[in-house]
Amino acid sequence: MTHRISIRNAIASDVPHIYTLLIPFADKDIILQRDEDNIFQHLQEFLVAEYDGKIAGVICVHIYGKNLAELRSLVVDPAYQKHGIGRLLVEGCEQWVAELGVAKVFALTYVTGFFIKLGYRIVSKESLPQKVWTVCVHCARFADCDEVAVEKVLADVPIQPMTILPIIELEQE
Ligand SMILES: CC(C)(COP(=O)(O)OP(=O)(O)OC[C@H]1O[C@@H](n2cnc3c(N)ncnc32)[C@H](O)[C@@H]1OP(=O)(O)O)[C@@H](O)C(=O)NCCC(=O)NCCS
């Protein structure tokens, strides 16, 4: 039987599904705790994976600045793991941020082997001051954090960002 996997931007009706996917992993401190309000407030940062029309995975990308974005809240429903969905979600984010002109993505993770498979390299957390001094510093585990920082430079990013068409064009006399 052929199965259909697709990656798309999240929409409001996905929020309860995203929340349900994240809870067990947030409870184990593998990912950030988020309530439904928080997911709504960051909805434009989320991609979801559908497996035969069911939400099977989620990822979020947060842009820090000119050349740095963080992959967050990556979870694949355990029932659908090892089908390539995690890879598609990460690659979807990479493509998305590359199109926005951002050249580097990173993650703080316990699944280093997964990210290495996807072409990431281990870096020191100190090389990511935007994260460490804005987010990590507020974390209870700041002093003894055992997550590993991984990053990937996106070779396909255009040196000049793609031409973004104006949303509104006015002609005035
Ligand atoms: C990590 C996670 C997202 C991977 O999702 P997945 O859909 O099972 O991964 P994929 O099937 O796309 O795997 C892609 C490749 O990585 C490998 N891989 C998957 N999980 C791995 C792991 N924990 N360690 C090492 N390699 C792993 C796969 O074998 C596959 O390799 P292949 O291409 O040679 O076959 C999923 O296991 C998960 O949700 N884990 C719990 C939450 C979590 O840890 N999130 C990460 C937060 S940063």
Mind telling me the CATH superfamily name?
A: Gcn5-related N-acetyltransferase (GNAT)
Strand order within the widest beta sheet: 1-2-3-4-5-7-6
* Number of separate domains: 1
Give the SSE string.
Answer: EHHEEEHEHEHE
- Mean residue pLDDT: 89
For the secondary structure, the number of strands is 7
> How many helices?
5
Structural class by secondary-structure content:
alpha+beta
Q: What is the CATH topology assignment?
A: Aminopeptidase
Taken from the alpha-carbon principal axes, the silhouette is globular
Gyration radius, to the nearest Å? Answer: 17 Å
The CATH architecture would be 3-Layer(aba) Sandwich
- Percent of residues in helices: 25-40%
Poorly predicted runs of 5 or more residues? none
Q: What characterizes the major β-sheet? A: 7 strands, mixed
Q: How would you explain this protein's 3D organization?
A:
The chain is an alpha+beta fold and 173 residues long. The protein has one domain: Gcn5-related N-acetyltransferase (GNAT) (Aminopeptidase). Helix content is 25%, strand content 27%. The longest helix is centred in the middle third of the chain and has 15 residues, at 85-99. It has a 7-stranded mixed beta sheet with strand order 1-2-3-4-5-7-6. The protein binds coenzyme A (COA). Coenzyme A binds at residues 25, 30-31, 74-76, 81-87, 107, 109-111, 113-114, 117.
